[in-house]
Amino acid sequence: GLGSDCFSFFFKILMAEKERKPREKSARPERTATQEPAAEAPPGVKDVWAMAIKERDTTKALSEEERTLFFLGGKSAGKTTLIDRFLERPPEVPKPTTALEYRYSRRTKNFDQGRDLVHIWELAGGASLSKLVDSVLSAANLRTVGLVFVADLSAPHELWPALDALIKAVRLRIEKIISDSAARDPKLGQLMKKKATAKHGEDHIDKEWLTPLPVTAIIVGTKYDKFQALETDKRRLVCSALRYCAHVNGASLVFVSDKDESLLTRLRGILSYIAFKTSAPGRMVAIDPAKPLLVPVGSDSLAQIGTPPVSGSDGAQSAKRIHDLWTSALAVAFPPDATRQEADPASREQYGEAAIDAMCAQKAEELEKYRRDAERKAHEIAQRAQVESNEPVEGDKAVRSSRSSRAPSAARPRK
What we know:
single chain; alpha/beta
């Protein structure tokens, strides 16, 4: 009938379709899991998908770069003020820094090509806390660290000892890092040596006298407005000594004052170049002691600096000898201030702790008692030693002399 004919018709169509699909599948080339479609965009049409992949890879390659700025200097030298002005914060009366403080700053690169991060460390206490240098400098940041030595020009009698001690502490730490990393990172020592040599060049006339630090360094003389009040000869001495220190240690030298915005702007440009690799500052040189100094690293020489104004400087045959002569010259011109007493941070009210303060007072009393007992025992031992050696003490001389005068004479023999 009609129903059976319709069923036979549709059954034949289904069987024909089933036989056709395997033939098309076998004729089509198989694609592996790693192959991408070979379709190409028509001429003049941008491949949006390819552009997105390229932008993703580029953004991943432009990872955030990190650098470190380490501010070191004497007490109340102006380190906190320099950091605030570098971060473009409004000027205010800075609080005393305690030991080691940390800040950071981020800056977006040009054309939104990532962001730079700078870690900012500030070491308080001058040379008294120089051991904390080991907490900041490490093998991880040695390639990207920038050292900022802050020298207080208004206190020239403290300037040289603090600066000298901090540079020595930094140098010892860098040498230890390179020594400890020799096995796992042998290229670090070679890189540091290359950076140190590049500061002055291999053909510099003073290369035998120089021991440059293998990291970026700058010496900042602060409070220049007060420094101008010094006598001309003393001002010239300080300028020459700082130029010598910067030259032999491979550092730039710049004078600033928080009262002069142009000097602060110039310093901010130098610090931005160190921290964020912005446009390099110009190579302008200013060595006139009557004006703020600006001496980029590698632009000075011992012949231009001159010799220390002390006897024996003409015959100096070693770098250590020249360094000692500059130390002596500054010590004669600016004797240490014996009347100045260093403030103990533990005595500040904001750090008060009743239990700890009571214990400190008890320990101080016990220490004073121990000192008195030790002095008494030392005096008794000294007196006993004098008696045993038949050397009368001062108080017994008169008594013994009187006894000897009253002693009977030797008995005469009988007839």
